[in-house]
Amino acid sequence: FPGPFTDVVTTNLKLRNPSDRKVCFKVKTTAPRRYCVRPNSGIIDPGSSVIVSVMLQPFDYDPNEKSKHKFMVQTTYAPPNITDMEAVWKEAKPDELMDSKLRCVFEMPNENDKLNDVDASKSAPVLNTSKQDGPMPKPHSVSLNDTETRKLVEECKRLQAEIMKLTDENRHLRDEGLRLRKVAHSDKSGSPTALALRDNGSNSLPSLLVVIAAIFIGFFLGKFIL
User: Fold this and answer.
1) Which residues form a coiled coil (predicted)?
2) Average pLDDT rounded to a whole number, residues 166-183
3) Does 37 reside within a domain?
4) How far is residue 191's CA from residue 120's CA, in Å, rounded to a whole number?
5) In which domain, by residue range, is 54 found?
């Protein structure tokens, strides 16, 4: 079984029947919890063969530990009109059974193979990327002479100027609102509630315009950077 053993490792056994009679077979192992065998029993026709897959489950491999896992392929001639496979093995006499024993060997890849695997894993994404997406552009490779880029820069400058203008208007209206509130408090005949509502309405519109303008400039700046 070739390592590493972080995933299932499968080895195939080819069983061939060279006789002129049907043969029953059964595959046994000393470590049944570590292996999955498919098929683990069956019948082989005369002159035919069967592939048996032996799947080793993942485990922590210790190179200092010697493998004691073994397999045994047991065979016997199939009786005529066979109906119960389990009964065949229970009723078979010892001198009618034939067996072949196999010892498991675990092999880890050498250092050269590991280096080749690492190089292949590093180069594979580069090759796939070049085939699918073409060469990757360098960051900030967009030229300022490009027409679309110039338009974005000019639009960003215009929005910045608009924000500054709205900010000044907002500051002016805020100062005006403070002045009107002072006049309302000093003038008993005036309506403080109406003045306050008018002041709040005047202040909210420029602030809203500033927020909208900030959203637009953020959108254009994001598009330019991307």
Assistant:
1) 149-176
2) 80
3) yes
4) 82
5) 9-103
In this prediction the pTM is 0.47
End-to-end CA distance of the chain: 51
Residue with tokens 């029953």: 24
Angle (deg, nearest 10), helices 192-225 and 147-186 = 170
pLDDT at residue number 181: 77
Q: Reduced to 3 states, what is the DSSP secondary structure of residue 80?
A: coil
Which helix H or strand E contains 89, and what residues bound it? helix 85-91
Return the pLDDT at 144: 47
Residue (of 221, 223, 226) closest to 137 by Cα position: 226
Specify whether the CB–CB gap between 21 and 43 falls below 8 A: no
Q: 90 near 82, Cβ under 8 Å?
A: no
Written as six digits, the tokens of 5 are 């053993």
Of the candidates 217, 216, 179, 212, which has an alpha carbon nearest to the alpha carbon of residue 198?
Answer: 179
Tell whether 168 is covered by a domain: yes
Which of 86, 103, 120 is where one domain is finished?
A: 103
Cα–Cα distance measured from residue 78 to residue 86, given in angstroms and rounded to the nearest whole number: 12
184-206 burial, b if ≥16 CB within 10 A, otherwise e?
beeeeeeeeeebeeebeebeeeb
